[in-house]
What we know:
Order of helices and strands: EEEEEHHHEEEEHHHEEHHHEE
Shape: globular
Largest sheet: 6 strands, antiparallel
CATH topology of the largest domain: Phosphatase 2c, domain 1
Strand content: 25-35%
Radius of gyration: 19 Å
CATH architecture of the largest domain: 4-Layer Sandwich
Strand order of the largest sheet: 2-3-13-11-8-9
CATH superfamily of the largest domain: PPM-type phosphatase domain
Number of helices: 9
CATH class of the largest domain: Alpha Beta
Amino acid sequence: MTERVAPQEASPLPPIEQQEWRGEFWRAASASSNKELADGGVRAWTEDVIEVDGEHGYFALCDGMGGKLGGQQAASIVAQTIKGEPTYAELRDTSEEGFFPRQFAAAQGEILRERTGELARMDTTATVMYIGELEGGERYAVLGHVGDCRAYFVYPTGEVVPLTEDDDWLNSQEAYNELFKGKSPAEVAIQRAEIRRELDEATSVDQLSPAALGLYVKRNQTQGVASAHMKPHITAVRFPPGCRIVLMSDGVYENIRPEKIGGILSMNSVLSPQEQSAALVREAQEGVSSQPTLTTKMDDKKVLIVEST
């Protein structure tokens, strides 16, 4: 559960926990902080999970939902279930027999079996990724995505390209019928991005267009792995040296204005993955108390950055 907040007096920012990993052709770093509390403290536990298996080039960021036990358990189930040794062809297979559809379905089944008692609402969103090298030496990254943990691709030049789109009301059939029917895929993508940016930057509902207001009212209709019609989105990209892929939870990006996210990500030539991940989490922490928007909220904050070296 998350909690929307109003401007507060400045208080000491929570500590940031960091980790680093290195592989044969990559380096990675994460930064995390737990949810802030209204009394100025910090929650002792987190519902979010980061999992790294360097041997197999596996990286996962899962944002649990459903309370202290349920959220963390659901996130851990997904992070562990999707860990394996898939081939590049298996990762790109979007059929029911493909690696990501098969493993996400297995994780869904396990979550649903555990949904009893105080775990009845457990669920999680997830963005998971495998990186590797093909026989010719070309490097790749393949992502499986459900929900609203976001991924960004950052070129050595600092150009930032989103790799995921939130599984929320704006991507539903209802929203398509209401807002986008008859428009080309390119037009729909542009308009969706404009609506998201409008909501991210607004400080009052009075500033919202009808479309952005609809997204705000239905902002909690995010698909999780346990959702009845769950289907992972699969994205494959080349991952040449100097490029970075950044995974972040909604506790980060909903507390930072879009231009600030782009600004921090574009500094990849001067910031290490460790410095960049910490900068994003710190900016999100400061956003909770000093730069509130309609989407600002107290929540766990996690960033995982992987660089092709």
